[in-house]
Automatic annotation (TrEMBL):
Signal peptide: none annotated. The chain crosses the membrane at residues 12-34, 106-123, 135-153, 160-181, 210-229, 289-310, 322-343, 358-378, 385-403. Keywords: Membrane, Transmembrane, Transmembrane helix. The lineage of its organism: Bacteria, Bacillati, Chloroflexota, Anaerolineae, Anaerolineales. This is Glycosyltransferase RgtA/B/C/D-like domain-containing protein.
Length: 674
């Protein structure tokens, strides 16, 4: 009994280990990204039932899944990361079961397809766990619907049971997401292959295939009617149809290019890119050493597991070649069919964020094609095992590297919000926080608006957004009509809405390792570190949107952001900048001297200018002059801003005697114009 149980369990256990190596080792160090943030904010603000409003405009059937999962996993990152890993693993098991329904005599090939699916390196958004744990539930449902359809053929005595299960799982997926609408054209191909074993004549086989396909075809037609005529393309538009109407030849040429490019990307590029040779410098840092350790361990594990538990299947050479041809045809057609929802809407498949998300539809075909191709190219069992194990190992290493990049972004994003909370203990309602863009890959301004509202309006439980964070490179000319005073600003995200004006804007700049800066139009317009677009936006920045001394200072939610980090240079800088806003110059000096006494120094020399001003305004011109000279020595590009700062301070404080001499000495060393 135990041997039978272990025989059944060992392959799922092996798949789970590969998923943990790929996606689980850094799970506790990952957070929320991209559309995860709005989803958990909606769960916090409206509760799980609120998702019926959130998805009412485009994917109402998806709401039910979010209602269940957000009620279970709520708003902490780690449970979602674990759940995302589990759903990826379960989807790979669904692939294993379904591929066996296509080719029951090719158990080892089905195992390889499932393994490649589990570690598929072309999809790099696994750490976006809220969105894609739910996404993999849908993909697993779709793949199970294929398996149920084929099980109805192989077990005719239970045909109706399998058909009902298949149509239900198909409908669950398809009415929730349109990603797999094109891929579904593979159904009659799979039915034809399986029915060849039972029906020799092609006419009878075609008739039987049609009747097995008919329930799914009916469900698909119902979806298309609902999607096209009821919802009428609420998000992405059928741009290919419009392009074909305007210029059929150009549209056909562009489509052909896209088809070839996307099939090449999903069938070859996604597997080739992870390959690289180790270099000595890889072992000089923890991340590089960890990558090669995990890659090597995955290679050895895969070799051991396959050679020990998946013995070579006996098959005549011509049958093996015939199967490899079948697999390449099925996999190739699956990739060709998968792309149509994206080609019609002109959405590009890529290997980088955010366009790699469309590879979800290509994954199944890519994995089947890869296994079939290697079966055809390599006739010896050991050769195939070694090469496939190497592919798996490099994919695992690539997935670990991807997770590590998300880990670093989570650190940067947390740092931003901690610094913001230190600098702005509260913000007036309807504040528009503006910058050109952020030094982040896996976040949009919509993403960051969610934690901004959670930080400053934690008790809001309505669809009204009291705050909005906007990137001018995205919103200028749209939600933000222009960088002028007195203009209305309106932005919607699903069921949430923000309304304000440019008179309530606050412009900031954040470029680590430099500290976050809330910008003043009169003080910061000559800072050389500011990008041109940020400098243009300065005229609508209002520091009075910051409430310096609220009754309840804002603090990032601990169950998401963790405990407040140790106070380093940027903490003292933010608190000193807040003191500058209130005119408390002694506190500016005190905070600076405390930071210096602890050995903290700025990574960005222009941050010293705050303390130059603090010392001068507190009547301590000698340390102000010394710090101004030091700043100029560290970054001579700050010469002009320093000279203008000294001139403004001279006009405000009118130094006399020794103070005037200190100022004159600083001017001379900095070479300020007379």
């Amino acid at each position: 009994m135990f041997k039978r149980f272990w025989s059944w369990l060992r392959f799922p256990a092996f798949l789970l280990i590969l998923c943990i190596a790929s996606y689980g080792l850094l799970a506790s160090a990952l957070g929320f990204y991209w559309d995860d943030w709005p989803m958990v904010w909606f769960a916090h603000t409206l509760g799980p039932a609120g998702f019926t409003q959130v998805f009412s405009s485009d994917r109402p059937f998806l709401a039910g899944i979010y209602v269940i999962t957000t009620a279970l996993f709520q708003t902490s990152p780690l449970p979602w990361q674990i759940f995302g890993l589990v759903t990826r693993w379960l989807t790979a098991l669904a692939v294993y079961w379904t591929v066996q329904k296509i080719w029951p005599e090719r158990r080892m090939a089905a195992a390889w397809v499932a393994v490649l699916f589990a570690v598929f390196p072309g999809f790099k958004q696994q750490p976006i766990s809220v969105v894609y744990s739910n996404g993999f539930i849908l993909l697993a449902s779709y793949i199970l619907s294929l398996g149920c359809m084929l099980a109805a053929v192989r077990q005719p005595q239970r045909r109706w049971l399998w058909t009902v299960l298949g149509v239900l799982t198909f409908a669950l997926c398809t009415f929730s997401t349109e990603y797999y609408v094109g891929l579904d054209l593979i159904r009659p191909i799979l039915l034809w292959l399986v029915l060849r074993e039972y029906i020799p004549t092609w006419k009878e086989r075609a008739k039987s295939a049609f009747f097995h396909w008919l329930p799914y075809l009916g469900a698909m037609l119902a979806f298309l009617i609902w999607r096209v005529f009821v919802f009428e393309f609420p998000t992405y538009q059928p741009e290919l149809i419009d392009a074909a109407a305007a210029s059929p030849v150009a549209a056909a040429g562009g489509l052909l290019y896209r088809v070839v490019q996307d099939v090449f990307t999903s069938s070859w590029l996604v597997w080739a890119l992870p390959f690289r040779f180790p270099a000595l410098e890889d072992f000089a840092n923890v991340s590089g050493a960890a990558f090669w350790l995990i890659t090597t361990a995955s290679l050895l594990l895969t070799l051991l597991a396959v050679l020990r538990f998946l013995p070579e299947e006996s098959a005549e050479p011509h049958k093996r070649v015939a199967w490899s041809h079948q697999a390449m045809i099925v996999g190739g057609l699956a990739m060709l069919f998968a792309g149509w929802p994206f080609w019609i809407t002109n959405l590009p498949l890529g290997v980088q964020f955010p366009w790699d998300r469309f590879s979800l539809a290509f994954m199944l075909g890519s994995c089947i094609f890869a296994v079939g191709l290697l079966e055809w190219l390599l006739r010896k069992h050991l050769q195939r095992v070694v090469l496939l194990s190497l592919v798996v190992a490099m994919a695992v290493g690539s997935n670990f590297e991807t997770a590590n990049s998300y880990r670093r972004e989570w650190i940067t994003q947390k740092d931003f919000f901690w610094q913001l909370s230190w600098r702005a203990p509260a913000l007036k309602p309807n504040t528009l926080l503006v910058t050109q863009k952020m030094p982040l890959i896996y976040y949009s301004d919509n993403s960051l608006t969610a934690p901004l509202n959670w930080l400053y309006a934690p008790d809001n439980h309505t669809n009204t957004l009291p705050y909005f964070l906007a990137f001018t490179e995205v919103r200028l000319g749209a939600a933000i009509p222009a960088l002028e005073k007195g203009l209305p600003v309106v932005q919607e995200y699903r069921s949430a809405r923000f309304e304000s004006s440019t008179d309530q804007a606050l412009v900031y700049f954040y470029s680590p390792p430099g500290c976050l800066r809330l910008l003043s139009p009169s003080r910061d317009d000559d800072l050389p570190i500011l990008p041109r677009e940020v400098r243009k936006a300065l005229k609508i920045s209002h520091l009075n949107q910051v409430i310096p001394d609220p009754a309840s200072p804002a603090s990032p939610p601990a169950h998401i952001f963790g405990a407040e980090p140790e106070h380093g240079w940027c903490y003292y800088y933010q608190k000193a900048d807040l003191a500058r806003q209130t005119g408390n110059w002694e506190q500016v000096v005190s905070l600076g001297e405390e930071a210096f006494s602890k050995g903290f120094e700025p990574a960005e020399p222009s941050e010293y200018m705050l303390f130059v001003e603090g010392y001068a305004r507190a009547g301590r011109w000698q340390p102000a002059a010394d710090m101004a000279v030091k700043t100029d020595q560290l970054a001579h590009s700050l010469q002009s801003p320093l000279c203008r700062l000294l001139s403004r301070l001279e006009a405000k404080t009118a130094p006399q005697g020794a103070d005037a001499q200190a100022l004159a000495g600083a001017r001379e060393q900095i070479e300020c114009p007379q």
